[in-house]
Design a protein that fits this description.
- By secondary structure, the protein is an alpha/beta fold.
- It has a single domain, classed as P-loop containing nucleotide triphosphate hydrolases (Rossmann fold), CATH 3.40.50.300.
- Helix content is 36%, strand content 25%.
- The strands form two sheets. Strands 6-7-8-3-9-10 form a six-stranded mixed beta sheet, with helices on both faces. A four-stranded antiparallel beta sheet has the order 2-1-4-5, with helices on one face.
- The longest helix has 16 residues.
- The protein is globular.
- The protein starts with a strand and ends with a helix.
Length: 261
């Protein structure tokens, strides 16, 4: 039985004269977090759209859970979920209503129970009766990911999930992503943030000018550079460390603190 959840071989894609993907190859193991790291315009979102059956490649093959994305799009869609760069929540509905709506669209039994379980899982129970438009960025993103998990997809694509979030909200999303992998979900994460890939990914592929120029674990990638020199360096705190120290330790989820505000 194969342990590969996603297999990409020789994928090419152009938009008229602009060649975005120039022969991309990589594999993602089941239950792992795979980061596709690259700057803006590197082709990350195009790759995700192809794997989501939303876009056809010009050449090459890609499969998800053993199913070809071009030949078996309906089967592929049943096993995947996609969270884009911007939260796709209905801000007029409450958090719970958003989840119930998705559960009904997926024809799941007991949609209310499904919604309540996901609200609890993502620490949004207390905010479940509030309109999503009142949520903070981190809460909205957590709700968005929760909506993606309705129906328990085997593979989830997170396309730059922390874009525009503050440091505390980013850490909240990181915790959610780690938990997804711990429960057996395969995660393909696209990001332009190096620290995000370093914190989350089991393997990292660097996409540059339409090609994968490096692919491996963090330890593998570090070996591509000359061996480090051992020197005494006075370590200064990062801005993120300063920020989190000044606001104090979290006494509970950000959602709960905001509810009390």
């Amino acid at each position: 039985m194969t342990t590969t959840a996603i297999r990409v071989q020789g994928i090419q894609k152009s938009y008229k004269d602009l060649q975005v993907l120039r022969g991309v190859d990589f594999e993602v193991e089941k239950g792992s977090i795979f980061a596709l790291l690259g700057s803006n315009g590197a082709g990350k979102t195009t790759m995700v759209r192809i794997l989501s059956t939303l876009l056809k490649a010009d050449a090459g093959t890609a499969s998800v859970q053993g199913h070809d994305v071009a030949a078996e799009p309906l089967t592929v869609r049943k096993s995947i979920s996609l969270t884009g760069q911007f939260a796709a929540v209905d801000e007029v509905l409450t958090g719970r209503e958003n989840l119930v709506l998705v559960a009904k669209l997926r024809h799941l039994p007991q949609p209310g129970q499904v919604a309540d379980e996901l609200l609890a899982k993502f620490r949004l129970t207390d905010a479940g009766g509030r309109k999503a438009g009142t949520y903070s960025g981190g809460m909205r993103r957590r709700l968005d990911i929760a909506m993606s998990l309705v129906g328990r997809p085997e593979v989830i694509y997170l396309d730059e999930p922390t874009t525009g979030l503050d440091p505390e909200a980013r850490i909240e999303v990181w915790e959610v992503v780690k938990e997804l992998a711990n429960t057996g979900t395969t995660v393909l994460l696209t990001t332009q943030y190096l620290d995000e890939a370093e914190q989350l990914a089991d393997r990292i592929a660097i996409l540059h000018q339409g090609r994968i120029i490096a692919n491996g674990t963090l330890a593998d990638l570090k070996q591509l550079l000359p061996a480090a020199k051992v020197e005494y360096v006075e370590k200064q705190p990062t801005l993120e460390e300063i920020f989190l120290t000044l606001i104090g330790p979290s006494s509970g989820p950000a959602a709960e603190r905001e509810n009390a505000a």
